Fold this sequence. Notes:
It is a single chain. With 242 residues, the chain is an alpha+beta fold. The chain folds into two domains: 121 residues, 2-Layer Sandwich (D-amino Acid Aminotransferase, Chain A, domain 1), CATH 3.30.470; 92 residues, D-amino Acid Aminotransferase, Chain A, domain 2 (Alpha-Beta Barrel), CATH 3.20.10.10. Helix content is 18%, strand content 20%. It contains four helices and ten strands. It has a four-stranded mixed beta sheet, with helices on one face. It has a two-stranded antiparallel sheet with strand order 1-4. The chain is elongated and about 85 Å long.
Amino acid sequence: PCKLVITLANLKEWKPLPESENLVFGETQTDHVTLVIRPNGVWLPKHIEDMKPYIGHNGEARLLRPERNMARLARLRNALPYLKWPSLSIAMPFQSLIDIGARWIPNKAGYSPYIRLTIVDTRPECVRAWPGGTGGHKLSLNYAPGFLPQRLATKQGYSQLLWLLGDDERITEVGVTNFFVTVQTGNGEVDLITPPLDGTNLPGKTRQSTLPSQMRTPRANFSCQVFHEPRKSHPRAPFHHA
């Protein structure tokens, strides 16, 4: 559940109301904003909803059909079931917002404040992909989470990131490419290991081209398996394909 805490702006800080005819869309901001924090949930990816308040016939401020906004969120929740999206209750703090800021609602036809509901992820860690997500598809949203970590790694002298997933830190990809590791066994053979296609990594064309050629190589064994930290008993040489 969300906890609603209302902090009113000082009356001396309240802005003067502009003339409705002089308003420009998106340029005038009201005195208050609403921040809803749900610490135990994950809201991904960034999503926006637009709400508009009006003055009703009884003189009270009201939101225009907020259930339609929540229904649109619900459709997205059905499309991305691995995410925890807010329910209709998230619209309630915005009703409080317009009750407080009702003076900003022009009581005339053709004018209305514009409330932008923005839902963002607040997790501190960086996650490129997750089970049931979109990591197995060529989507731009799969690359954006890695931009900042890659810049930080570059500043520390590293050329790439190794993406680990879950408490057991299993390897999924390296940077934005598929990951392979070669293991030289005691009998002189070479094992080629790559993470399985479980939806968290992309089925790259180079990956698909590499596997059949390696399977035809004498004394080379190929396997797709969940891969964790390298075992110290065998030397391993990791490489990746762009």
